[in-house]
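User: quick one, sequence for these tokens?
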């Protein structure tokens, strides 16, 4: 079993569904609260962009990509869900077919990263109603984007280290 590929699949599923990763609860002056790592891809004009949709921080309006744009829903959310599932399956297959599935994993993650980096800024007015330029995008990247970069590095290492059965 390819443990690195399994971790990459779990990471893809976590990014697809969660808004943040909770780190722990702490108590400060009798008030309990928690700290977490936000999984937003980027933030612009008080709007946080996630794989599953957007949150407007000023009005707390949550919009799914399914409501806003169907192509973005398929390119972001469904690609990462499919990536997570096939990576978990591919990490258990110790044949060339498992290695091919792991290659598909890295290709789908790369497509998601390219879509976030290029197509969202180009079509930002149609998608979300505000203009996002390339420099504005890269200056406001969030933790989720960097976790996607870590995820593709894990996927490439998983392809390289994928065990094959010897006969």
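Assistant:
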């Amino acid at each position: 079993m390819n443990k690195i590929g399994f971790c990459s699949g779990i990471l893809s599923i976590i990014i697809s569904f969660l808004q943040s990763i909770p780190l722990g609860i702490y108590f400060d002056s009798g008030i309990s609260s928690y700290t977490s790592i936000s999984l937003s891809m980027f933030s612009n004009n008080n709007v946080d962009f996630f794989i599953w949709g957007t949150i407007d921080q000023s009005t707390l309006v949550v919009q799914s990509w399914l409501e806003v744009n169907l192509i973005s829903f398929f390119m972001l959310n469904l690609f990462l869900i499919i990536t997570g599932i096939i990576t978990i399956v591919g990490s258990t297959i110790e044949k060339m077919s498992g290695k091919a599935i792991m290659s598909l994993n890295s290709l789908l993650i790369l497509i998601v990263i390219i879509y976030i980096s290029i197509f969202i800024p180009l079509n930002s007015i149609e998608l979300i109603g505000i203009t996002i330029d390339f420099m504005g995008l890269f200056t406001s990247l969030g933790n989720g984007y960097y976790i996607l970069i870590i995820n593709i590095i894990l996927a490439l290492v998983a392809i390289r280290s994928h065990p094959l059965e010897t006969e």
